[in-house]
Design goal:
- The chain is built from four helices and five strands.
- The chain has helices spanning 56-64, 71-80, 92-95, 99-125; strands at residues 3-12, 15-24, 35-40, 52-54, 68-69.
- Strand 1 and strand 2 (15-24) form a beta hairpin.
- It is elongated.
């Protein structure tokens, strides 16, 4: 059985609340779980200690048994010093403008460069 430590969503619409659970990786996100080891409340201020409550001893025990944390849970465990902090992901190509927008920006930059050269040439001749 492949074990996962992941978030299970609860709470009302637009008021999320997550339990940190150990579960079989094949079970549904909000379905059956083996053990609850904490909770995460994103609606609470970031400096509030009630935002993230995690039983580190249980987490270490499940990690030693082979449980794999999800990306978000790995970030929490890395901040707590249980595991090495995961490297932050970065995908700069995804945030770039698409092809047509890049063409328009290049055309605008070329037009601006020509406009800047024209008055400079006129001043140099005078």
């Amino acid at each position: 059985m492949a074990l996962a430590i992941r978030l299970s969503r609860g709470g009302a619409k637009k008021r999320p609340f997550y339990r940190i659970v150990v579960t079989d990786s094949r079970s549904p996100r909000d379905g059956r779980f083996i053990e609850k080891i904490g909770h995460f409340d994103p609606m609470v201020a970031k400096d509030n200690p009630k935002r993230l409550v995690l039983d580190l001893d249980k987490a270490k025990g499940w990690l030693s048994k082979g449980a794999q944390p999800s990306d978000r849970v790995a970030k929490f465990l890395g901040q707590a010093g249980v595991i090495p902090a995961p490297k932050p992901r970065n995908n700069p190509k995804k945030s770039q403008p698409k092809a047509k927008a890049q063409e328009r920006m290049k055309a605008a930059a070329d037009a601006a460069a020509k406009a800047a050269e024209a008055p400079a040439e006129g001043q140099a001749q005078a």
